[in-house]
């Protein structure tokens, strides 16, 4: 016997890092936030993203976006369904993290994880249908073939809902991904653990690196940088109700970003939320006269 | 006398019965404005057409209140079928008075009569006719059963297509059940006033449409009014930005149609004669004062010289002059201010190394004119390849491969329109896929239709006008 078993095992705590460009770097700033359980015990140090991290994340998202948008709708649907599968397989881990960091009962944590899985499944089914709901064949008065199709807006920066950390995060990321956007998301400050673990799920679900980037940290600190970034095309402020979100919308106006406001907001699990992060492209093609 | 020197064929203005003074139209009444009245002049002659009232904040209050009352008491509760019937009536009246409207528009804006007669005014009637049919079919616009109008819609439109932009805004708003307060541009208020007369002829209930003439202050007061539910703006990107800031944090819905710097991409296998017509139409239609103008010509390097030679030959046949002449191709620039901007930008283009060419053409002594101009040797970084000129000025760049064409076309903060000219269908579709623009015309350019959504990507604004997507912009999901 090479090793001797002891009566008690010393556990191996997880190091929670950022999720940028498919990798898990520490914050370049070297900063962390301490997460404690409801009873006050130390759980983990979570990386606290900086402005530089946000810029790196936007760069990664921009690089990844054309490839993701260029994948077939069927392929995007397969990947989103794969996310649901992998999340389902790691249910116990997420339940544990939600219990430890959000203080939920095991039953409620389990319900939230299952709802999140189901929401990924719901979105997986939309990828090859949303163009049929949001697009149109236009009967113009002339010899033209004329089609309108929804296309992704590009890079979407998101402040995720502050409640129900995992489910809220899913409810804003998944609709953006359906049509081929890339995402930089600031998760709820109250559930950074589930957010980074979701990053691990995404990293192992055939989602190309950089399509989703997760920046744990202070939403109030990060959101203005993202709102003002000229290479971000849309800003989803669904979870920014507690911030000075009006100022964020004002900043976003400088680059004419599409903004989803926190109030009254856009209902999750609706095609309107998916379409809010698209542009409509209309293509006119001449028809010859025979 | 060159072979193209036809005898003049001016359209008569006797069809017009204009007043000397136009007032504000609020709650179905003509009322004085609180601001200082201003004149609208004809840009081709610099002659005054009429005086127009200027609305101050009190007038904006009154107009929004009239619109709110009409929304609450008449237009909101009315059946979709009856709303539609009013819009059909308006469409018919527009058709009946088409010639009068075309002449008035040309007089006030300076654009050629053949464009107002054959493009603007027919499209205006078509837009009302199309939207009229939506009014009783709103359950089918894709927002579920019984979608709801926003309420009072504030609308601000530009001077380049005064009546057409009015139709694009007013028709869908009314069809959806909203009431309207609209401000036309200060240099082109005339046809909006004629539209008020048409609303009267149609018996449209008082306050459903309200028209406020005035300048930027009037528009700003309208956008900021707390009782406005929806703002629709077409105009410059700079003003669009200000509006987006002004409504931040409010419940107001916003659609913006802003600037553009459209790429018109010509591949070496393009049907050249058609492409030349498309290039000309793309950038000289309405003197280039079109947000979706194809103002950046991207031509494949191996056909550059052939395209330029034919283009210059074609440009030499363009007739510049009296917009009321039925043979005129290029009319007057809308204002002295706009002429100054075009002149400044083209001078800058030349200073940055571009080579400028215009056909020999006589510039009238009165009015605001700029000859059709092509600037070759333009770099992607040149000012005139980046900034919207909004005039009859074409910047020419070259490319070698489709990827290079796509990269250059997308190298702009704007994303409104693009054109592709090629005989190869598979390539056309592949290139169209990769262009970041809201409207892509392939082997054609500058086509518009009320069934077809129009609007931009990126800093060209958000929202669409036209089609089912355009109707959605004036509705919210029912509860």
From TrEMBL, chain A:
The keyword Oxidoreductase applies. Residues 28-240 form the Aldehyde dehydrogenase domain. The keyword Oxidoreductase applies. It comes from the Bacteria. GO terms for molecular function: oxidoreductase activity. Coiled coil: none annotated. Keywords: Oxidoreductase. PANTHER family: ALDEHYDE DEHYDROGENASE-RELATED (PTHR11699). This is Aldehyde dehydrogenase family protein. It comes from Agrococcus jenensis. The lineage of its organism: Bacteria, Bacillati, Actinomycetota, Actinomycetes, Micrococcales.
TrEMBL record, chain B:
It comes from the Bacteria. The keyword Translocase does not apply. InterPro entries: Ald_DH/histidinol_DH, Ald_DH_C, Ald_DH_CS_CYS, Ald_DH_N, Aldehyde_DH_dom. GO terms for molecular function: oxidoreductase activity, acting on the aldehyde or oxo group of donors, NAD or NADP as acceptor. Keywords: Oxidoreductase. Belongs to the aldehyde dehydrogenase family. This is Aldehyde dehydrogenase (Acceptor). It holds the Pfam family Aldedh. Residues 30-476 form the Aldehyde dehydrogenase domain. It comes from Agrococcus jenensis.
């Amino acid at each position: 016997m090479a090793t001797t078993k002891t009566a008690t095992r010393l556990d191996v705590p997880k190091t929670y890092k950022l999720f940028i460009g498919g990798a898990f770097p520490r914050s370049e700033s070297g900063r962390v936030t301490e997460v404690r359980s409801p009873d006050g015990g130390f759980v983990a140090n979570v990386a606290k993203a900086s402005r530089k991290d946000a810029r790196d994340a936007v760069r990664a998202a921009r690089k990844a976006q054309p490839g993701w948008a260029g994948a077939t709708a069927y392929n995007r649907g397969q990947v989103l369904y794969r996310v649901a599968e992998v999340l389902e397989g790691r249910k116990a881990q997420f339940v544990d993290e939600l219990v430890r960091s959000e203080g939920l009962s095991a039953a409620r944590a389990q319900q939230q994880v299952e709802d999140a899985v189901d929401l990924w499944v719901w979105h997986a089914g939309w990828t090859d249908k949303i163009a049929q709901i949001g697009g149109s064949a236009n009967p113009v008065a002339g010899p033209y073939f004329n089609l309108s199709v929804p296309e992704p807006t590009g890079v979407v920066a998101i402040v995720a809902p502050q409640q129900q950390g995992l489910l809220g995060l899913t409810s804003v990321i998944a609709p953006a991904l359906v049509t081929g956007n890339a995402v930089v998301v600031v998760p709820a400050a109250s559930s950074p653990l589930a957010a980074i673990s979701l990053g691990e799920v995404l990293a192992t679900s055939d989602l190309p690196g950089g399509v989703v980037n997760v920046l744990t940290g202070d939403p109030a600190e990060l959101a203005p940088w993202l709102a003002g970034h000229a290479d971000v095309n849309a800003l989803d402020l669904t979870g920014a109700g507690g911030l000075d979100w009006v100022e964020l919308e004002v900043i976003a106006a400088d680059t004419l970003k599409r903004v989803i406001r926190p109030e009254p907001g856009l209902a999750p699990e609706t095609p309107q939320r998916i379409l809010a992060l698209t542009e409509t492209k209309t293509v006119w093609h001449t028809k010859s006269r025979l | 006398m060159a072979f193209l020197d036809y005898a003049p064929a001016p359209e008569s203005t006797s069809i017009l019965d204009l007043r000397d003074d136009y007032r504000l139209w609020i709650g179905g009444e003509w009322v004085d404005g609180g601001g200082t009245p201003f004149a609208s002049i004809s840009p081709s002659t610099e002659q005054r057409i009429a005086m127009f009232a200027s609305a101050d904040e009190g007038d904006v209050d009154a107009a929004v209140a009239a619109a709110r009352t009409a929304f609450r008491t008449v237009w909101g509760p009315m059946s979709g079928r009856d709303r539609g019937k009013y819009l059909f009536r308006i469409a018919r009246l527009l058709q009946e008075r088409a010639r009068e409207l075309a002449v008035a528009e040309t007089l006030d804006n300076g654009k050629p009569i053949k464009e107002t007669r054959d493009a603007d005014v027919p499209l205006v009637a078509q837009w009302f006719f199309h939207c009229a049919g939506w009014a009783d079919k709103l359950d089918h616009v894709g927002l579920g059963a019984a979608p709801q109008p926003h309420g009072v819609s504030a609308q601000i439109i530009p001077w380049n297509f005064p009546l057409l932009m009015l139709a694009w805004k007013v028709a869908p708003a009314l069809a959806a059940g909203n009431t309207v307060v609209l401000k036309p541009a200060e240099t082109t208020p005339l046809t909006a006033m004629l539209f008020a007369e048409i609303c009267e002829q149609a018996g449209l209930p008082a306050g459903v449409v309200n028209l406020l003439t005035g300048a930027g202050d009037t528009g700003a007061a309208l956008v900021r009014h707390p009782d406005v539910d929806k703002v629709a703006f077409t105009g410059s990107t700079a003003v669009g930005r200000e509006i987006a800031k002004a409504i931040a944090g409010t419940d107001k819905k916003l659609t913006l149609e802003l600037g553009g710097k459209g790429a018109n991409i010509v591949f070496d296998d393009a049907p050249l004669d058609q492409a030349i017509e498309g290039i000309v139409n793309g950038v000289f239609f309405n003197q280039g004062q079109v947000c979706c103008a194809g103002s950046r010509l991207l031509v494949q390097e191996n056909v550059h010289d052939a395209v330029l030679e034919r283009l210059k030959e074609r440009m030499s046949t363009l007739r510049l002059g009296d917009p009321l002449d039925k043979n005129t191709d290029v009319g007057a620039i809308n204002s002295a201010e706009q002429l100054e901007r075009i002149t400044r930008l083209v001078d800058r283009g030349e200073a940055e190394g571009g080579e400028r060419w215009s056909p020999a053409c006589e510039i009238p002594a009165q009015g605001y004119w700029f000859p059709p101009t092509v600037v070759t040797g333009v770099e992607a970084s040149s000012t005139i390849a980046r900034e919207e000129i909004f005039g009859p000025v074409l910047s020419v760049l070259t490319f070698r491969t489709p990827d290079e064409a796509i990269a250059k076309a997308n190298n702009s903060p704007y994303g409104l329109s693009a054109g592709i000219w090629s005989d190869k269908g598979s390539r056309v579709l592949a290139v169209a896929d990769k262009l970041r623009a809201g409207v892509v015309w392939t082997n054609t350019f500058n086509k518009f239709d009320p069934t077809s959504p129009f609007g931009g990507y990126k800093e060209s604004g958000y929202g669409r006008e036209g089609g089912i997507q355009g109707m959605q912009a004036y509705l919210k999901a029912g509860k």
